[in-house]
Amino acid sequence: MKNILVTGGAGFIGSHLVRLLVNKYPEYHVINMDVLTYAGNLENLKDVEDKENYTFVKCDICDLKKVSQIFKEYNIDSVIHLAAESHVDRSIEDPFSFAQTNVMGTLSLLQATKGFWNSNFENKLFYHVSTDEVYGSLGEEGFFTEETAYDPHSPYSASKASSDHFVRAFADTYGLPVVISNCSNNYGSYQFPEKLIPLFINNIVNNKPLPVYGKGENVRDWLFVNDHARAIDVIFHKGKLGDTYNIGGFNEWKNIDLIKVMIKTVDRLLGRNEGTSEKLITYVTDRAGHDLRYAIDSSKLKNELGWEPSLQFEEGIEKTVAWYLQNNEWMEKVTSGKYQEYYQKMYDN
Ligand code: NAD
Ligand code: DAU
Fold first, then answer.
1. Strands (DSSP E) along 61-205, which ranges?
2. Whole-angstrom Cα distance, residue 117 to residue 126?
């Protein structure tokens, strides 16, 4: 029996992780703590909301008093921490909210955890979910390993790097049992359409311009979100205390090439002539401080814990496009209201 506190479980990756844990481990109690920002959506978890081993609590990770009460009420023995502000472009507009949630929020969660466990760390774990962006940017060659020095460039990655440092500081200073993973770009269902893949699928469907930053030559390493959730499950159960694990798909794509694959797939599934939507490609001003290339070496995770991606990219992108086409109601809901203001501010100038 475990009482696992998952933070940010109503978001994109969090909802996939919560679903996996609730279904795979009926003997665990999964407590999803989320404040429900624009990115948090309980509709992402409709299929598990009535399960006996699942509880949702609305709470801000920065609210130390309330978080401490939740630890007590549910007798929390494990934490998987995903709650964060996660979009780089928003961090460029409003860095303070990233420092608040990602740094101060993580610190407050660490304090609540330390306070409740009170040096009784047996069978306890604080698992921090982080990103490959903390390592900075690669040139044409090479990979990020667990030994790569931190070199964040955006306010988002700086805030995530800082949160990683706080987690390690709590391990070194107070003996908190921690593990950290740093993952590459995720794609799949329930991703908020501010990120490249769902944004572009939605725009292709609606014949709207596709705003490609710079020359579209930046490279990302894409991993199907269910494979990230599987990796977290493996590391949570088998990871070595104090260790870091990189998670990636060995699946690098130049943005413009990936965009053309999305265009072909959407056009085909909508019965349009393949490639007709290429005319929507619009090159726009580059993202400030845009990292050129990310590529993760996840061989430690493979060699030590036996995890590998389960899905080839071609299959993953086909499934993903099909999901967004079949779930246009979900897309319509999340793109109404405030999303329109966001879109205008970021793209209509
Ligand atoms: P997301 O933006 O989709 O979801 C974030 C969730 O956190 C939302 O449900 C939101 O309501 C919640 N949240 C935000 N602030 C909160 C607060 N103060 N208190 C409680 N809940 C709060 O993010 P995501 O893409 O699912 O990313 C989840 C985690 O994984 C983040 O820590 C992110 O840095 C990391 N990560 C993401 C990716 C990726 O490709 N998306 C890759 C590697 C790592
Ligand atoms: O690498 C892991 C990270 O991946 C996560 O930590 C972040 O939470 C997640 O948002 C993601 O960051 P990116 O900045 O790489 O993802 P995004 O989808 O915003 O952009 C992917 C690439 O596409 C990037 O090179 C910028 C480009 N892009 C993005 C948008 C939104 C465009 O060209 N046009 C766009 O409109």
1. 78-81, 125-131, 178-183, 185-187
2. 11
Let me know the angle formed at the C-alpha of 10 by 152 and 48, rounded to the nearest 5 degrees. 140
Instruction: Express each pLDDT in 201-216 by its tens digit.
Output: 999 999 999 999 999 9
Please state, in angstroms and rounded to a whole number, the distance separating the CA atoms of residues 272 and 45.
32
Q: Which residues are catalytic?
A: 132-133, 156
Residues in contact with 306: Cβ distance below 8 Å, sequence separation at least 6, in sequence order: 234
Q: CA–CA separation, 219 vs 139, rounded Å?
A: 10
Nearest protein Cα to ligand 2, atom 19: 195
Query: Ligand 2: distance of its center to the CA of 141 in Å?
Result: 20
C-alpha of residue 39 to centroid of ligand 1, in Å: 8
The mean pLDDT of the chain is 97
Atom of ligand 2 nearest to the CA of 287: 26
Q: Which of 304, 299, 307 is nearest to 146 (CA)?
A: 299
Ligand 1, atom 18, residue with closest C-alpha: 60
To 5 degrees, how large is the angle CA 198–CA 203–CA 208? 160
Cβ–Cβ under 8 Å, residues 254 and 55: no
What is the pLDDT confidence band of residue 72, given thresholds at 50, 70 and 90?
very high
Q: Which ligand is closest to the CA of 129, given by its number?
A: 1
Residue type (1 letter), 276: T
User: Taking CB atoms and a 6 Å cutoff, what residues make up the pocket around ligand 1?
Assistant: 7-8, 10-14, 34-37, 39-40, 60-62, 82-84, 86, 101, 105, 129, 131, 160, 183, 185-186, 192
pLDDT value of position 349? 66
Domains and CATH numbers, the chain: 3-187+223-251+289-312 (3.40.50.720)
Phi/psi at 20 (nearest 5 deg)? Answer: -60, -50
Determine contact, residues 92/157, Cβ cutoff 8 Å.
no
**Alpha carbon distance 331, 323 (integer Å):** 10
Query: C-alpha angle with apex 95: 93 to 97, nearest 5 degrees?
Result: 105
